[in-house]
Every structure is written in structure tokens, then in C-alpha cells.
Amino acid sequence: MKALIIVDVQNDFLPGGALAVKEGDQIIPIINQIQEKFDFVVATQDWHPEDHGSFAANHSGKEVGEFIILNGVNQILWPTHCVQGSLGAEFHKDLMTEKWKAVFQKGTNPLVDSYSGFFDNNNKGDTGLSKFLKNNGIEEVFVCGLAEDYCVKFTVLDGLSEGFKTHLILDATRAVNIYENDFAKAMIEMKNAGANIVHSTNIE
Questions:
Q1: 149 is an active site residue
Q2: How far is CA 19 from CA 60, 65, 154, 170, 182, in A?
Q3: Catalytic one of 106, 144, 153, 158
Q4: How far apart are CA 4 and CA 144, in angstroms?
Q5: Does residue 124 register a pLDDT over 90?
Q6: How confident is the model at residue 57 (pLDDT cuts 50, 70, 90)?
Q7: Catalytic annotation on 82?
Q8: Average pLDDT estimate for 99-114
Q9: Is 151 an active-site residue?
Q10: 2-202, what's its fold?
Q11: What pLDDT sits at residue 60?
């Protein structure tokens, strides 16, 4: 049985948001169409406390894009985004949510960031996504959403490590591209790890 995982299609990651992904809004109609091909759909949601350690604003003298060591992990500093209960943390109003079986929130621990929908960046905090999928007989996952070079990539990689046959839906994701070629580098990394790269029109 297959499932669709929709990653972080939230206002702060869309044009006009605090951590906007260029053309991020263009994937929403595609994701809505894709959902019709799945009986099982779940979503992830960045859900940070205001004092999250990945926010540059919480580190005196530090700027967005700089790196620090956060709880033993090399951490890039982000603009304040997807704060719990804020408009920026909400899913975009045009995104269809009626078919969703569950939403898995991540990044709730201020001491560690969490890109993947499965685990935090220390690989210790478990969202429960893997167990939920397996308990429902899911063996194959299709991943889409934002952003391709961070949360989508790590969700794909963890899906593979958890034993799921894992696909990235190429036309239903966009990258932050903080550094040039991040999109292409992430694509190569996912493909080399065993992910299948597919187009939405080829999903049966």
C-alpha cells in the first residue's frame, strides 16, 4: 500500500513568508491533483517554539546563514519562522486537507532542529510517522512539498532508512537554494541513496 507525504506547505515557506521558497506556491495545485491518486495522505508541519535554537534572532551577533553548534550538531541559522500558533505556521489556504489521515509536527524541541518528517536532526526525537505508516500497512511513500534541499530531502532519506520504497515527486517540490546548485545536489543525494525520482503525471 502506498502513501503520499506532504512536507511543510506552510505560509512561511511560501512567497511573502519569513523563509520563502521561490515559486513554492506553484506546487500547491499539483499537490492537490496528486492527492486524488492516493487513499492515504499525511502531512508534516514545522512547529517551532519562539525560543528555538535554529533562529538567528535567538543568538546575539549572529546572522541568518551563519552556522553554530546546536546540541552537538552543525546548525545553519534561519529567520524566525513557523512559530507555534502563528499565521506563518499554518498550511496555505488553497492546500486541500480533507483527505489527510494525520499531521506530524516537528521542530518542537528548542534544542534541536528537525528537517525530516520522521526524526529530528540528532536522529533521537521520533515524530511517530514511521510507526503510523507501518501500522497502516504502508510500504511505499511518495514525498512532495517544501523545501527540496532540506525538509523534503531528509524526509526522503529517512523514508529509505526506515525501509519504505521511497519516491520524490519532482514537479511537486521546490528548493530554498541558499547556495547555488543546492537543488541539484539534493537530487543527486536522494537518488544515490535509492530514491526514485518521478513526475506527478506518471503516478498511477
A1: no
A2: 20, 12, 18, 21, 16
A3: 106
A4: 8
A5: no
A6: very high
A7: no
A8: 97
A9: yes
A10: Rossmann fold (3.40.50)
A11: 94
